[in-house]
Amino acid sequence: MNLIEQKLFETNAMKVADADKPFWYTSGKLGPYFINTHFLYGSEKDAGDLLNLIDTTIDDPVKLIKEMEKQVIDFYNNNKLYKDVTDYYLEQLKKNELFIRSEYISGGERRDWFFSIIIANLTSKKHLYILKNKDIYLNLQKITDIKGAEVCHIADLITEASSYERAWIPAIESANGKITFTSSIVDRCQGGMEVLAKYKIPMYSPVKIDNDFFKGAADNKIITKAQEEMIKHFTVDPDDFGIKFIMNNPDFLKSSLNSDNKSTKSKAERCISENPYNIDFTKLGLTKNK
């Protein structure tokens, strides 16, 4: 396992459920793991503090940029975990000619900024802040033209690349630029690379969340073989995983519905009310009104 893969587990950025207690996702479905890549920014608390800074200043982009850049650069110089992860990541990026050639580094609101700002600073490249409304800021000013420049977009996590299609690619194109390369700390291997290929954007990630990743974790005794098998089932067919787990473990759903944890209870209730798995809950002695 490489350094970033190890740190994902050490910081709980990668959290794997017990084999008999999968996690409830917001959708009302079940899954075997959570990934919070931004926890690599020191810790969960440190990441939460930086997100809070973004949320409380996002309506004033100039203030946001001033405070974010100072915070991130100072933190890099004082936090060993963040520095080690960043240095390892940058070492890999420097092996790519498209990264070296790019004039700008862009990052999208919000979590991309955890890594795009510091990578731009360390390489003396110009940093483009892309907001969700597709506005772009550079050097404390809103800009509309980067004169055909090549851009490398740095992200924390790529799943289906929906944010690229919705905002990041059109924002850069509207500013007369082109994303010629992109990289994320983690690739969830859920179709993002294929989507980006349609736009002819090569992609690199030092961590790929696939069967080899979890096999490495099991071989290093970070997760159990039972957890690895649970993840394999989920990877092949997420819906089949959820349906079979609920049908084979009805008491798990029932206990979740009666949980004192409001988040667990609400997600289990969504499983019943919205029925994303299309299960006949009457066979389990449950109805949509439970």
> What summary fits the major beta sheet?
8 strands, mixed
How large is the share of residues in beta strands? 15-25%
Inertia-based shape: globular
Low-confidence stretches: none
Tell me how many strands there are.
12
What level of helicity do the residues show?
40-55%
**SSE succession:** HEEEEHHHHEHEEEEHEHEEHHHHH
- Overall pLDDT, averaged? 96
Which class best fits the helix and strand makeup? Answer: alpha/beta
Relevant terms:
8-stranded mixed sheet, alpha/beta, 13 helices, 17% strand, globular
Task: Describe the secondary structure blueprint for this structure.
Blueprint lengths: L2 H8 L3 E3 L6 E2 L5 E2 L1 E3 L8 H14 L3 H18 L1 H14 L3 H5 L2 E5 L4 H11 L2 E5 L5 E3 L2 E3 L6 E9 L3 H13 L3 E10 L4 H7 L4 E2 L2 E2 L2 H9 L5 H12 L1 H11 L1 H8 L4 H13 L16
Parallel strand pairs: 5-6, 5-9, 9-10, 10-11, 10-12
Antiparallel strand pairs: 1-4, 2-3, 6-7, 7-8
Helix pairs in contact: 2-3, 3-4, 3-6, 9-10, 10-11, 11-12
Describe what you observe in this structure.
There is one protein chain. The chain has 290 residues and is of the alpha/beta class. The protein has 13 helices and twelve strands. It has helices spanning 3-10, 44-57, 61-78, 80-93, 97-101, 113-123, 162-174, 192-198, 211-219, 225-236, 238-248, 250-257, 262-274; strands at 14-16, 23-24, 30-31, 33-35, 104-108, 126-130, 136-138, 141-143, 150-158, 178-187, 203-204, 207-208. Strands 5, 6, 7, 8, 9, 10, 11 and 12 form an eight-stranded mixed beta sheet that branches. Strands 1-4 form a two-stranded antiparallel sheet. Strand 6 and strand 7 (136-138) form a beta hairpin. Helix 10 (225-236) packs across helix 11 (238-248). The longest helix is centred in the first third of the chain and has 18 residues, at 61-78. The mean pLDDT is 96.
